[in-house]
Amino acid sequence: MATNKMKIPRQPMKEQNPEERTGNFLEVPDGYDVETAKIEAERCLQCKNKPCVDGCPVAVDIPAFIELITEGRFIEAAWKIKETNSLPAVCGRVCPQEDQCEKFCVRGKKGEPVAIGRLERFVADYERSQGEVQIPDIPPSTGKRIAVVGSGPSGLTVAGDLRKRGHEVTVFEALHKPGGVLVYGIPEFRLPKAIVEAEVDYLGKLGVKFEFNSVIGRIETIDELFAEGYNAVYIATGAGAPVFLGIPGENLGGIFSANEYLTRSNLMKGYLFPEYDTPMPRSRNVVVLGGGNVAMDAARTALRLGPEKVTILYRRSAAELPARAEEIHHAEEEGVIFHFLTSPTAFIGDDADMVKSVRCIRMELGEPDASGRRRPIPVEGSEFEFETDTVIVAIGNLPNPLVPNATPDLPVSRRGNILADTKGRTGKKGVFAGGDIVTGAATVIEAMGAGRIAAESIHEYVMNEGERTWAQP
After folding, report:
1. Is residue 135 part of a domain?
2. Is the pLDDT of residue 74 over 70?
């Protein structure tokens, strides 16, 4: 039987062709149909030691849900995933499975690993399309109240896990929509907002309450939440502060942080202007600085708005690109141009103080730096100018400073990240934190994994078991 499984090739997903999809914001992959999902599921070897589970930050029982797919029990497969993951339709689309669960798949040692992410997406979509979303029984109320600050993947995970334990949970979200980076940062063609809304709606049916336009750190402080009767607070405000280069000309018109550009398009529906009244820049020649997933999202978003050319400038070589291979592949298919070993040194403006070009220098790779990648070194005398009318800076993010600035007794790192121990406990009693606000920008599933650990720790604390063992990180 195992021999036959090894002969089954990994099943591809149907996608919009590049010529069509660059003219719309519809999701690029179509997902598996029933028959394709069953064929892909048959490739799983059902390993007894389950190495794929070790690679999953939220410990989904991957072989179990895949076996249910082979039996045609798709709804039960979705329920199995939701035992530890409340956002499977999201994770199936945006998580880097190639560096997590699929990386440890035994099947991948001789060929390609099982398409775990695609199967997760399939069963989550199937459950939703059939109207079979199961709401688990909630235990009697414990009388404990938990405030969750931020409704990104980490905050949503904590909220769901704690509600399933019978606690009253309120999520405070600064924006007018829940989802955090899932709604403001990831484009519609990669993660449709209807998917996020459906996952959040599930939490609402569990009894999680949401307060929108609630900027904790401005309208209320952490101490005021405690004064209102909350027994614990979980901070999951993410890493939404943009990083700029600090080079001449950075304040010229036409230069955007990726955060602003993507928020305009995604959360504020700028790509649907004038149906929605958030304008997007109408560009002729777009330059994106950076090589991560955010850079790919920005470049592919810009491409769909009709410029003549979209170019990514990256200071290392193609081998060092940190973005997912799938996102790089899609960007290349769609016509995004890549210029490697290129670093900007200044922005040049016209008479109206609008950017007209980027002054760059060629780079060469030296010895590896702290990231393990070879350090880029400027090549003397190699300066040149790159014409552009729109620049999108996507070189990283810093932790959101609002809550730490308003909570002086909350310890933070030199970079502004909240300090927390392995259980999510901070240096302020009763306050927990997790996700990007602690680790810096990471993946959706890693933030969710931190949320699961913190939920366990918060439960222990509010039920008084944690009072005796609170330790400063």
Report:
1. no
2. yes
Number of domains observed in the structure of the chain = 3
pLDDT value of residue 3: 58
**Strand pairing partners for 285?**
309
Q: Kindly state whether residue 377 falls inside one of the protein's structural domains.
A: yes
- pTM comes to 0.92
Q: What is the CATH number of the domain that holds 350?
A: 3.50.50.60
**pLDDT given for residue 86 in this prediction:** 86
Burial class (CB in 10 A: 0-12, 13-18, 19+), 73: middle
Confidence of residue 370 (pLDDT cuts 50, 70, 90): confident
Domain extent, residue 304, equals 243-397
Please, are residues 122 and 100 in contact by the beta-carbon 8 Å criterion?
A: no
Based on the fold, state whether residues 276 and 380 are members of the same structural domain.
Answer: yes
Percent of the chain at pLDDT exceeding 70: 98
At 462, is the pLDDT very low, low, confident or very high (cuts 50, 70, 90)? very high
Side chain identity at 10, as an amino acid letter?
R
DSSP for 414-449, written as a single string: TTSPBPB-TTSBBSSTTEEE-THHHH-S--HHHHHH
Dump the DSSP string for 359-396: EEEEEEEEEE-TTSSEEEEE-TT--EEEE-SEEEE-S-
Residues 390 and 423 placed together within one structural domain of the fold: no
Asked whether 355 and 254 are in contact (CB, 8 A), the reply is: yes
